[in-house]
């Protein structure tokens, strides 16, 4: 059986279906489809010049009429939860255990890692920036992180689709596929990461300079207690900050910093930048051209 997208493109080539008819078929087929199917379909569309017109001319659906409210806000790290199923241990801890500059950022009044705030949904769900979140979530769980937070009466999975759809419209203009990350490292949520294994990992990577720096921020003076503090926080994250049920793997997640029409603009995810994919979601309603 042919993939529906192939059928729709055939009808376009034959001239037997109008754009609106093809769009309606595509909407109906994608409705309630899993996030992985949605992302794969977007990439198939971006591979074919004819299919890209569906993005450019209007890739709307029921999400096209969703009202979004956007605000920049500070949210404690321990109140956030992932929408992806995997959190890389190395990306969560390795740099923070070895670089004192990272500790200073993790304990700042407005935590911003790698010069990019998190993208969050309904004050709870991380849409983009999982590894920018996980380090301070372990080293300073109550620290407040600067977030681009979007509120809407939809599910977290639908929000992931909305962001990927917005990025796809940008990629169509750049003649590129969706920017997807590579899957690397071991997952902190795997059962293998027991207290004993986490403690061994921390001891192997933490430096004396970081221990001293953490002592100034936490008032914990004993190096052994510092290690215990980090391990306890990592275990708390495993238990209390669980991923979204049926969360996709991290390789399929939105990469908002790459969804920009202006390659010279390094801070590409900022909603205030007109070339940013998130700019399409920051105006109150989603542009019908950006969503499934």
Structure overview:
With 292 residues, this protein is an alpha/beta fold. The chain has one domain (1-84, 108-181, 243-292). Helices cover 45% and strands 9% of the residues. It has eleven helices and five strands. A five-stranded mixed sheet has the order 1-5-3-4-2, with helices on both faces. Helix 1 (4-14) packs antiparallel against helix 2, helix 5 crosses helix 7 and helix 9 (195-205) packs across helix 11. It is elongated, with a radius of gyration of 21 Å. Residues 58-62 and 287-292 have low confidence and may be disordered.
Question: Which features characterize this protein?
Answer:
292 residues, alpha/beta, 11 helices, 5 strands, elongated
Uncertain stretches of 5 or more adjacent residues: 58-62, 287-292
- Please state the overall shape, judged from the principal axes of the Cα atoms: elongated
- The main sheet orders its strands as 1-5-3-4-2
Radius of gyration: 21 Å
Average of the residue pLDDT scores = 82
User: How many distinct helices?
Assistant: 11
Oligomer class: single chain
Distance between the termini: 22 Å
How many discrete domains?
Answer: 1
By DSSP, the count of extended strands is: 5
Order of helices and strands: HHHHEEHHEEHEHHHH
Give me the secondary-structure topology.
Elements: H1 4-14, H2 19-30, H3 35-47, H4 49-57, E1 69-76, E2 81-82, H5 89-98, H6 100-106, E3 118-121, E4 125-128, H7 130-139, E5 144-151, H8 156-174, H9 195-205, H10 208-218, H11 223-240
Parallel strand pairs: 2-4, 3-5
Antiparallel strand pairs: 1-5, 3-4
Helix pairs in contact: 1-2, 3-4, 3-8, 5-6, 5-7, 9-11
